[in-house]
Write a structure and sequence with these properties.
Blueprint (H helix, E strand, L loop, with lengths): L4 H32 L3 E3 L1 H9 L3 E7 L4 E6 L9 E6 L6 H8 L3 E4 L5 H29 L17 E3 L15 H15 L2 H4 L8 E5 L6 H12 L3 E5 L10 H15 L3 E6 L2 H4 L11 H14 L8 E7 L7 H4 L6 E4 L5 H11 L11 H7 L5 H17 L7 H13 L10 H19 L5 E6 L9 E5 L9 H22 L9 H16 L32 H28 L1 H14 L1 E3 H9 L9
Parallel strand pairs: 1-4, 2-5, 7-10, 7-11, 8-9, 9-10
Antiparallel strand pairs: 2-3, 3-4, 6-8, 12-13, 12-14
Helix pairs in contact: 1-4, 5-7, 8-10, 12-13, 12-14, 14-15, 16-17, 16-20, 17-18, 17-19, 18-19
């Protein structure tokens, strides 16, 4: 709020009036009394002598009889009337009779009740301050866009409302999710030309649920629909419906759909709908009343007694398993569209979109980057090129080279680069560990190719070995899983062969966790053991506390013993084969370790060239 002299006077006027009354009630009487009090003093005994000699003409008593101001005249006072202050004793019953006997003018002045004045001030001060605060609150709210009633509008919708399609995003800006785009192109046609479908009796879908991991472009796709269809776009997060007051969330849902009906046809986008749409009555202690009422209102608005013609609700979540079943049925969310992690073709398209505003060296191939980034989402790829651009600017280069992109990938996957290790026994042990991973992976037909081996620490890792998959693999064979297990055991096997069992370190702890997990999945989920083609464990567990707590194991204790034995046998078999590979290639390993300690990083092509001088490298599948 703009502060002016007029506003300053308005706020200060009640305070000035309050202090004026305080002054009049407290300090003014005291000041008046002080004017009557003389500067000279006299003892009580001397006062009685003056009284006996007839020199006292007038007595004024103050302070409840404790103080007296006398007017006396006599030779000792120069025959002039003077005012003298006398402190009276507490018990002096003879004083009044003496004063009457000598015909002295007597006057008593009662003391001011300051306690009553302070009580009055205390009772007035708080209401005055409260009134000032309310005036300030309403003046401040009136200066905002919400108006004077904004302070009481917490039940209204907080949706990001756009009367025009101002998202600025169309389908051309969304890459890597072509299947989802095809689904929504039909939705756009529904909104722009509904007569194509209504003539044959088709109805517009009421809701579309976008399901996929974070960063895959669900929100971006919803904005592209509004941009293509040129319709109003409402955007709200599921968490904005949930408040501590019961009924506020339901009120916001009603207000949101009321606005949408007034501007139909339109799109209502609810991001992270799992915040409000999770299953009702979950867990041991039941559900949340506010969330359940909000969900019930949302269900009613989407498919209730009133029709919402022309309103399409698009919701996004990465936890579809916790959504309420009533929310997912046809009539509410008629379609569920999966927005998955992009494949190689999708990653290449996303990189081409994000590379338009980047100065990338002409020698950089986006195909190579797409090959090196399996499992990256669209947000990850955008962050990758941004990190590469930051590194380029930090090095004062004119354009982004492959070196900066490699460093950016390493930083995103493994963490920030640490201080290189000094040449010591620890550095040599780490070098043997990483070369063990790399040489086992290279000499196995079903393992991925080595991309590079480095001793430069990143994150918690003191050294790293990178593998590049030949292509995106949706189906993995038993031989490939065993090859991954052997590759993960290569570091521990190298430590055992070179340094002995007594010098084995804890560096393989993460590798052993991965090995045990892969072996267990082979036995319990994939049926790749002697137990047979049985699925003994379910991958999906119930996410709610209390659900399924009474469920027993899906197999007997006898099967559990067999599972443990099969896991042990698979790992032992792979471990023995890995030890044989390390023993048979000890000369190559020693040479590679010396090169790695000297250069700290060996590229995958150089690594394979050195090995090919000593042994034949199998052709990868």
């Amino acid at each position: 709020m703009k502060l002016s002299w007029k506003n300053l006077l308005l706020w200060s006027l009640p305070i000035i009036i309050t202090f004026f009354f305080i002054w009049q009630g407290l300090f003014a009487p005291i000041a008046n009394e002080n004017n009557n009090i003389a500067n000279s003093r006299m003892t009580y005994g001397r006062f009685l002598e003056y009284l006996d000699m007839g020199w006292v003409k007038k007595v004024d008593i103050y302070d409840s009889g404790h103080t007296a101001i006398i007017e006396a005249v006599g030779p000792e006072l120069g025959n002039r009337i003077q005012k003298i202050r006398v402190e009276l004793p507490t018990n002096a019953p003879e004083l009044i009779s003496k004063l009457k006997k000598n015909n002295v003018d007597l006057d008593a002045h009662p003391s001011k009740n300051t306690i009553a004045i302070w009580n009055l001030v205390g009772n007035l001060l708080f209401p005055i301050l409260l009134i000032i605060g309310l005036i300030f609150l309403f003046r401040r709210s009136s200066n905002t866009s919400g108006g004077p009633g904004q302070a009481m509008s917490f039940g209204k919708s907080k949706a990001l409302f756009q009367m025009e399609a101002k998202t600025g995003i169309v389908f051309e800006d969304v890459a890597g999710i072509d299947e989802a785009k095809e689904e929504f192109e039909e939705i756009v046609t529904f909104l722009k030309k509904p007569e194509y479908f209504t003539t044959v009796g088709a109805k517009i879908p009421k809701g579309v649920l976008l399901i996929g991991p974070p960063g895959t472009g669900k929100t971006l796709l919803a904005k592209a629909i509004a941009g293509e269809a040129d319709v109003p776009f409402f955007s709200i997060s599921g968490s904005e419906f949930v408040e501590m007051f019961v009924g506020v969330g339901a009120s916001r849902v009603r207000d949101l759909f009321k606005k949408a009906k007034e501007n139909a046809p339109c799109i209502v986008f609810i991001d992270e709908i799992d915040a409000v749409g999770r299953q009702r009555g979950t867990g041991i202690g039941g559900g949340n009343d506010e969330r359940e009422q909000t969900l019930n209102q949302l269900l009613t608005e989407m498919d209730g007694f009133e029709g919402n013609t022309g309103i399409i609700v698009i919701a996004a979540t990465n936890r579809a398993d916790i959504l309420d079943s009533a929310l997912l049925r046809p009539g509410r969310f008629d379609r569920q569209v999966m927005v998955n992690i992009p494949d190689f073709k999708g990653r290449l398209s996303i990189l081409q979109v994000h590379a338009k505003n980047k100065k990338i060296n002409k020698d950089v191939s986006l195909n190579i980057i797409a090959r090196r980034t399996p499992g990256f989402s669209g947000a990850d790829l955008a962050n990758l090129l941004n990190e590469a651009a930051i590194l380029t600017a930090r090095k004062h280069k004119e354009n982004i080279t492959l070196n900066e992109i490699d460093n950016a990938i390493d930083r995103i996957v493994a963490g920030m680069e640490g201080t290189p290790l000094i040449d010591s026994k620890s550095k040599r042990l780490i070098a043997y560990h990483e070369i063990g991973h790399a040489i086992v992976g290279t000499l196995l037909k079903d393992h991925e190719n080595v991309q590079k081996v480095t001793l430069i620490p990143r994150g918690q890792a003191r050294g790293l070995t990178w593998f590049t998959p030949a292509e995106d693999q949706n189906l993995i064979s038993r031989a490939q899983i065993k090859a991954k297990i052997m590759g993960a055991l290569g570091g521990r096997a190298a430590e055992e062969i070179v340094f002995g069992d007594a010098e084995v370190t804890t560096g393989a702890s993460n590798d052993l966790q991965q090995v045990t997990s892969m072996a267990r999945q082979m036995v319990t989920r994939f049926g790749m053991s002697k137990i047979g083609p049985l699925s003994l464990e379910n991958e999906d567990s119930n996410p709610f506390l209390g659900r399924g707590m009474q469920n027993s194991n899906e197999y007997s204790d006898e099967i559990a013993i067999k599972i443990d034995k099969q896991i042990y046998d698979i790992i032992q078999e792979c471990h023995q084969k890995t030890l044989e590979i390390i023993k048979n290639n000890r000369v190559i390993i020693d040479k590679l370790v010396n090169i790695l300690i000297e250069k700290e990083t060996i590229d995958g092509n150089e690594f394979r060239q050195i090995i090919s001088q000593y042994t034949e490298i199998p052709e990868k599948n």
